[in-house]
Amino acid sequence: MSKDKSFAAVALITSLFFIWGFALNLNPILIPHLKKACQLTDFQSSLIDSASYIAYFLLPIPAAQFMKKYGYKGGIILGLLLFSAGAMLFYPAAAVRNYAFFLGALFVVFSGMAFLETAANPLITLIGDPKSATQRINFAQSFNGMAAAFAPYIGGTFILSGTVLTDAQEKAMSPEKLNAYLNHEASSVQLPFVIISIAVLLVAIFVWRTAFPVIKEESPEMREIENKPLFGRIAALTKNKHLMSGVVAEFFYVGGQACVTSFFIRYSEHVAGFGEHHAAKLLSIALLLFMFGRLSGTALMTVINPVKLLVTYAIINIGLIAAAVTLHGEVVVYILMAVLFFMSIMFPTIFSLTIKDLGPQTKLGSSLVIMGIVGGAILPPVMGRISDVSNIQVAYIVPGVCFVAILWFALKNLRVKHVEIVAGH
């Protein structure tokens, strides 16, 4: 394949990191927005994360099996088409203002993202010179971080109205005026998601028309293993204690990340009295810190043992969350923003530590680790329930527990001297 065609393929794969980074980080905007538009509790609004992340639990292995038959390119195209269709479903969901419809649309979007992430993480390392594989995935991750920072700002600007009515204000309105207000709030997602749908569909067309290099990654040993019954292979892998401890750590990491970001706007309103728009801008800044943290963390790993860095960052975040739960005033919002910086290296480091010795079982093992992302579906509702019975500040104890679990995993791996980063999320 010519260098120009190879470059085009790498560019398109890198765009996938941007796409799922953008979509993942619209959830912190959708949670307070649909809470208003559909009159939800914190627990109910947290189901936005559940509908999103449950797709990561259900789809990675089917996605891997689909790509085994139709290739990475086929998997990417299907993922993009699912993403585009799910985004377009936001239009009728807003028209009828039905929360279950919104959740269904999100599930379709994130089903597409499960295909994209299952394909893009290994593919970015396989296309091009093997010696520069680590640089390529770090470069792709920077676009993921950039999208994460843009999403809350753009979503906050074009989706959030900045108007939050108290219960008393809602009760004082006539049913007709309240219904008009709620319909107006719901409708603000329609145009942004139609634009997202069209943009993703265009990427799918570009992928379809772009030649991808033929990937020959399977050794005879790998082909022999992959011809064995799938569920038998999965059962055998679940007996690998190191792999399963990594799945658990990734469960808590993604759950913690979802908890920190998804309720950031609610936390900022409760603790510091910030408005929606200001809180959304602060979240964008926090996610910029996340991107800088990943870039600086990658650089630090060249001189510091990555596992020791993971231990250090986990300890720091336990302290920061303790402060966010117990202190008061505007300063605690900035403390919570710092948590994102120290979260930045956790997903790729845990992932890479977990799969480093799996050999020909790496592909299936990676799918199991990706399934650990289901923590983002389970832990935010736990946090939302705690918030409903107490308050959102107390509920931030949930991500604190997550960082304790990550510290446990890191301490178990302190003897590991070298980690090659092979994935981004």
What brief labels describe this structure?
425 residues; mainly alpha; 22 helices; 0% strand
Report on the architecture of this protein.
The chain has helices at residues 3-24, 27-37, 42-58, 60-88, 90-96, 99-126, 133-158, 167-172, 175-187, 190-209, 220-226, 230-237, 241-262, 264-272, 276-300, 306-326, 331-343, 346-355, 362-371, 375-389, 392-395, 397-412. The longest helix has 29 residues, at 60-88. It has 425 residues and is an all-alpha fold.
In short:
With 425 residues, the protein is mainly α. It is 80% helix and 0% strand.
Strands, helices and their partners?
Blueprint: H1 3-24, H2 27-37, H3 42-58, H4 60-88, H5 90-96, H6 99-126, H7 133-158, H8 167-172, H9 175-187, H10 190-209, H11 220-226, H12 230-237, H13 241-262, H14 264-272, H15 276-300, H16 306-326, H17 331-343, H18 346-355, H19 362-371, H20 375-389, H21 392-395, H22 397-412
Helical content (DSSP H or I, runs of 4+) = over 70%
- Coarse shape: globular
Order of helices and strands: HHHHHHHHHHHHHHHHHHHHHH
* Low-pLDDT ranges: none
Q: What is the alpha-carbon Rg in Å?
A: 21 Å
Number of helix segments? 22
> Which strand-content bin applies to the residues?
under 5%
